[in-house]
Amino acid sequence: MLRGVTWLLLTLLSSASLSGWFLLQQYEEKSADFRILYRDITVKLSQHDAIMPLLSTQQNMAEVTHMLPQIVQWRHDSALTPRMPVIPEGEGQYWLSHGGLSLLIDLTVLLAGEEEKKTFQHFAISWQQARLYEQGDGNTSTWWRWDKTVVSPNQPFLLSAGGNPTWETLPWWWVGSPALFWALALYLLTQYQTNKRRRDIADLRAHYAELTRLNTLGELAGGMMHELNQPLTAIMSYNQAAVRLIEQNKLAQIPGLLNAAVVQIKRIDALLSQFRQRLASDDAADQPIVLPALWLRVCQLLDNEFRAGKVHLSSHFADDLSMLVAPPLWVEQILHNIASNAIQAQVGCAAAWLHFDVRHKDRGIVMTLTDGGPGLSEEALERVFMPFFTTRVAGIGLGMALVDTLVHRLNGTIEASNIAGQGACFRLWFPLREEAN
Ligand SMILES: Nc1ncnc2c1ncn2[C@@H]1O[C@H](COP(=O)(O)OP(=O)(O)OP(=O)(O)O)[C@@H](O)[C@H]1O
Ligand SMILES: [Mg+2]
């Protein structure tokens, strides 16, 4: 639509300019014709002034009219009778008087050879408001007008011409050619813009693919760091405790500590093989999961942190709970990261707690984790699942992003909210597979 209007405007403007230019050419041509007419008439009229003193009474009329055919008659008057220098006689004739001689001049004959006068719609010769000669209709108005007075002592006639453009001789092909030109120019411009847009989109896609690749690598590396950090810290503290006990010769508690360290080492092993698997393929082995047992394992893994934060743990599992079929390590990671955040959010809280609730809903299983912390800030509510969003000084902001990725891979959903008077609440839903139960 916009292109159509642009084309129309440009075409109209260009065609109007071209027409104006061609009309100007016509005007210049007619002006030149008028100048020629003026020059010829001036020359012929000056001949009358020149010849008058030379004409004698005995002059042969035939000779004179042969030389100047416009002089159709002459007569000698009494010099005593005062006469006007020019007396219109009608039908293109006038008397020109000087001294005792009067010449009857026929302007039609005088102008007979002047082809230029035909180019004008109207042409007239006047003397003091009286029309001596007229060609065409002087009452109809014309586009252009030319007026000039002949420089002559006895015949200061006013030459007037009026003309119209000759539309039929305008080069219409040229006047209409901008339509074609602008259509072609706009078509080429549109093609150029379309190609450029395509190129830009292709560049953008390539750039985006590169970014995604870098992001995936970054996310993977960040994810590994995030997941390995907690078990490594736990192993270190178990080993430090074991060394202290050996120094104090309290050997009885050492197997328990070392066993706890072994559990963490096994988790590291499992995490590493999961990352390996993720690099090789996206599939992880699905297994029926006994949720109470899995939760117990998460609590064991975070045992140190729960103790240090004095977090009170509670859970509720619905009776006849169906088995969730999924890679157990994924579900473990999800719960581990949410629980870990709950512990970190309640550091310094007098009565820290975490409640885990599992029940059926909409052909799936709903897991709700609620804590007694300050809850999620308004910004966190919006951005908690975005990679690298963190409010913790030592945080990376990848825990919940990983949770979100894993939940979606399991075709589940996750919502974050706050519970009035309590803390944050994460509600997860996973679909159940019919054949598993
Ligand atoms: N239970 C919670 N209570 C209050 N705020 C929370 C809770 N869980 C998450 N958040 C907010 O969401 C942010 C993002 O959590 P996320 O686990 O993604 O990153 P992080 O814990 O800050 O760092 P890390 O990558 O080490 O886990 C946290 O920094 C915190 O502000
Ligand atoms: Mg976290």
Automatic annotation (TrEMBL):
Keywords, sorted A to Z: ATP-binding, Kinase, Membrane, Nucleotide-binding, Phosphoprotein, Transferase, Transmembrane, Transmembrane helix, Two-component regulatory system
Documented EC number(s): 2.7.13.3
GO MF entries: kinase activity
Transmembrane segments annotated in the record for this chain: 172-189
InterPro entries tied to this protein: HATPase_C_sf, HATPase_dom, His_kinase_dom, HisK_dim/P_dom, HisK_dim/P_sf, Sig_transdc_His_kin-like_C
Signal sequence coordinates: none
The reaction(s) this protein catalyses: ATP + protein L-histidine = ADP + protein N-phospho-L-histidine
Domain annotation Histidine kinase: ranges: 223-434
One Pfam short name: HisKA
Presence of the UniProt keyword Nucleotidyltransferase in the record: no
Source organism, top-level taxon: Bacteria
Protein name, per record: histidine kinase
